[in-house]
Structure prediction request, 330 residues.
Amino acid sequence: MSIWKKALATAAVATALMTTTAAAENVKIALVVKALGIGFFEAAAKGAEEAAKELGDVEIIYTGPTDTTAEGQIEVINSLIAQGVNAIAVSANDKDALVPTLQKAMERGITVISWDSGVAAEGRMMHLNPSSNALIGNTIIKLAADHLPEGGDVAILSASATATNQNIWIEEAKKVLPNYPGINLVATVYGDDLADKSYREAQGLMATYPNLKAIIAPTTVGILAASQAVTDAGKIGEINVTGLGLPSEMAGAVASGATKSFAIWNPIDLGYAATMISYNLVKGNAKAEPGAEIGMGRMGAAKLDDGNEAAMSDPFTYDSSNIDQFKSIF
Ligand code: RAM
Prediction:
């Protein structure tokens, strides 16, 4: 072989090697959350890391804005597009505002799903709900009603006014209110999933509605802040704070009696499942279309409905009888 032929052959081997290395590159999955610093999303990130470890060739990019705005998420998503990630799995601060940016991501070949808080159908391939929306809506009212046998005034302290998930749950909750005749919903306010704003909104509710018997917060940030506000106002026993919370954050409120009970699903499993789904879509192991079953590792398979949505498990209720078993998990 001439020296030139040898050089060419070596170059060919080198090229082949480079191609193999490129093919073995990690699948980059970005978990975009409503905002950084929220315990619920940190638990979901733990699940995403668990899935990545199991899969072996995945890199998780856990990211989000500093406050729960669509603008902040759009900025984050644009930078992920520029980085060339393989998948974006987003919990949306707004159903519609993210659509054009996510469409741009999909046009560039990026897999886009929403989980927890959804994006409108045209802005994602599928959406993973933590549970049935109707069930969550009923659960949050029932949690309050169970401790109000005589009925009474209740108020909702939500996350941001544009949060897809909370808005759907509140809509579902309002539908079942006629089934709870003594329960009188007097107001819905928004704490934007910020601890201080949620605390002030809870104080505002107590000042405006002197007969308030329960604050229902379908957000882990809101329920914690409201239980603190009720405690600081000396109203434990008078106002019950309930809704959706994390056992790790709510153990104190349950012990003090500020919160009699609350519910949630497992956020670790949710982050794990969103990662597994993203991976399977990137790898072409499944297609996001009605009727499809997309593998979620140890969580089984997500079965997509006509709107390309799937739901995971039922929410679980925590109170003084069981919170100690869960408070170190999530
Ligand atoms: C907060 C967020 C999240 C929601 C939970 C219940 O952590 O708003 O989106 O699912 O509460």
About this structure: Residues 19-23 have pLDDT under 50 and may be disordered. The radius of gyration is 23 Å. The first helix runs from residue 3 to 23.
